Amino acid sequence: GAVVSQHPSRVICKSGTSVKIECRSLDFQATTMFWYRQFPKKSLMLMATSNEGSKATYEQGVEKDKFLINHASLTLSTLTVTSAHPEDSSFYICSARDPSGAPWGQFFGPGTRLTVL
Amino acid sequence: RKEVEQDPGPFNVPEGATVAFNCTYSNSASQSFFWYRQDCRKEPKLLMSVYSSGNEDGRFTAQLNRASQYISLLIRDSKLSDSATYLCVVNMGGNTPLVFGKGTRLSVIA
Predict the structure, then answer these.
(1) What is the pLDDT of residues A78-110, one digit of tens each?
(2) Do A44 and B100 touch (CB under 8 A)?
(3) What pLDDT score does A1 carry?
(4) Least crowded by CB within 10 Å, which of B64, B77, B85, B86?
(5) CB distance from A105 to chain B under 8 Å?
(6) Where does A1-117 show beta strands of DSSP type E?
C-alpha cells in the first residue's frame, strides 16, 4: 500500500524556536496533503489542506502565520511551527491521498510528537 | 451538531466477545465512509471502507445506511490485539479532507 513518511518523529525544543516537519509520499504523487493535530486523549483536528503549487487552506482558528505550510513538490509538504510555545506541544500528523488508489481513503504519516519546553 | 458522532466508550469486553460500534454523520452529501483504527500514540490506520451493500473482512463487518446516515462496525471474536480507538470517518470526495469522529475506545480484556 501507499506509504507516507514524516520527519522527525519526535522533537523537543525550547520556547520561541521554530520547528519544521516534513511529510513525504514515498510511492505516489500527492497533489493534496493534509495536516492534523491531536492533543492527548482528543480527536484528530484538521489544521490545513496543503495544495501543491498553491497556498494552503487553513481551518478556522489556525493561524497561517504561525503554522507555515509549503507544498513545493508532488511528494513533499512541510509544516513549520514558528515561535513555538508549550501550548503547541502536540502530535502532528500528515496524510496524503493517493488519487490512483482504492479504497478512496488517505494514508497517514507516522506522526511527529512535538514537545515545547 | 457535530459532523460525525460516535459513542466515545470506553467499551471493555472480554476476549471472544462480539462488539458493535455505531456512528452517525450529518452531511447527506458525504460520499465515502471508512473505519480507521488508532493505537495509543500512533497514527490512524485504515481498517476498512464501508459500502451500502455491507462488507466483511475476517472478523470485521461494516455497514452503511445512507437513508439514516448511519455507519456501523461489528467485531466478532474479539482479540486482545483489537484494543484500540476506532475512528468513524467520512469524506466528501475529491481532494477534500477526511472528517473524523472522536473515536470509540475499545479494551479487550483477558
Answers:
(1) 999 999 999 999 999 999 887 776 555 678 999
(2) yes
(3) 59
(4) B77
(5) yes
(6) 4-7, 10-13, 19-25, 32-38, 45-51, 57-58, 67-73, 76-81, 90-97, 106-108, 112-116
